[in-house]
Amino acid sequence: METDVIKVNNLSKHFGEIKAVNIIDFFVKQGEIFGFLGPNGAGKTTTIRMMTGVLRPTSGSIQIYGKEVWKNQIMIKQILGNVPEEANVYMDLTGFQNLSFIGELYSIPKVERKERALNLLKKFELFERRESLAKKYSKGMKQRLLLCMALMSEPKILFLDEPTSGLDVQSSIIIKNLIKEYNKNGMTIFLTTHNMDVANEMCGRIAIINKGKIIRCDTPDNLRAIEKEYQAINLYLSEEINPSAFSEIEGIKNVSKIKDFYHIIVSNVDQAIAGVINITRERNVKIIKINTPEPSLEEVFINVIQEGER
Ligand SMILES: Nc1ncnc2c1ncn2[C@@H]1O[C@H](COP(=O)(O)OP(=O)(O)OP(=O)(O)O)[C@@H](O)[C@H]1O
Ligand SMILES: [Mg+2]
């Protein structure tokens, strides 16, 4: 049975004049990987901080397993694992000691604590380095240790703010695969990213957030269907013309000049090409080459955001 383990309603967070999160609603289902995707400053971290009980919402509600987060801090902390955006490990402790310390905070008995810590270190490929001080770890190793720390309490829901940002391929793959594995075993995952590919690969559903507002929330497949409304034409001409000339094309969404060609985004290529031909004819300019590449999901996402702003 699918149940909504997280319900967010009318949630806002203002910092003075800044509406970092501006009336958002969404839910997360038991056992899904839910992605929060958006550009820098969109409000992702602010949202996740409210969801994990770090920041008090200006207004609105966040319920996890039916309990209001802000009013049930202790209970919430027991069931959540959290890897914040700028978290850090304890530099002067070893990898193993970092995990033991977290285990103590959660009052996990000593034997159990050790067993969990060693198992996590093995899983995350840190076992060999378990006795090194964390300050000697690479960035990717620190990030993996942070994940281990978040997993020590065997949380039901795991919150990850940009889990693979700035990591090399190997660390990213280890982290992505293990997140997927934990999810397969029933853990609900909430992650933020500005990387479309990460969201696409990992998430069952994705909310796209920009300037504090959720502009889309759907499965990667359905988001890709939106992609079909965004078709591209690359147009090479014998002479330069003002890109604004293309604004009269039916269903035009965007036009830009890239190097020696015009990149035109439209909702229907066939219709648009007739318009392109007219425009060039009127100006006595020859078409040298025209092609219609598939735009990436990333490009669609940028266009959806730009449209929202217009
Ligand atoms: N403590 C704060 N005080 C004032 N403004 C803040 C604070 N925290 C966040 N903001 C502002 O709120 C907005 C959203 O920031 P937030 O950190 O949530 O974005 P984000 O989506 O996580 O971005 P990024 O991808 O860069 O991590 C920004 O305009 C930011 O400057
Ligand atoms: Mg952030």
If you had to describe this structure to a student in words, what would you say it looks like?
It is a single chain. Strand 4 (59-64) and strand 5 form a beta hairpin. The protein has 310 residues and is α/β, with parallel strands linked by helices. It has ten helices and 14 strands. It has two domains: 4-225, Rossmann fold (3-Layer(aba) Sandwich); 231-294, Protein-tyrosine phosphatase receptor IA-2 ectodomain (Alpha-Beta Plaits), CATH 3.30.70.2470. Helix 3 packs across helix 4. A six-stranded mixed β-sheet has the order 6-7-8-3-9-10, with helices on both faces. The structure holds adenosine-5'-triphosphate (ATP) and magnesium ion. Magnesium ion (MG) binds at residues 44-45, 85, 161. Magnesium ion binds at residues 44-45, 85, 161.
Topology order in helix (H) and strand (E) letters: EEEHEEHEHHHEHEHEEHEEEHEH
Number of strands: 14
Based on Cα principal axes, name the global outline.
elongated
Q: Strands across the major sheet, in which order?
A: 6-7-8-3-9-10
Q: Which CATH class of the largest domain applies here?
A: Alpha Beta
Q: Per DSSP, what share of the residues sits in E-state strands of 2 or more residues?
A: 25-35%
Please mark out the parts with pLDDT under 50 across 5 or more consecutive residues, or reply none. none
Helix content: 25-40%
As a whole number of angstroms, the C-alpha radius of gyration is 24 Å
Bound molecules: adenosine-5'-triphosphate, magnesium ion
Count of all domains: 2
Distance between the termini: 41 Å
Class inferred from helices and paired strands: alpha/beta
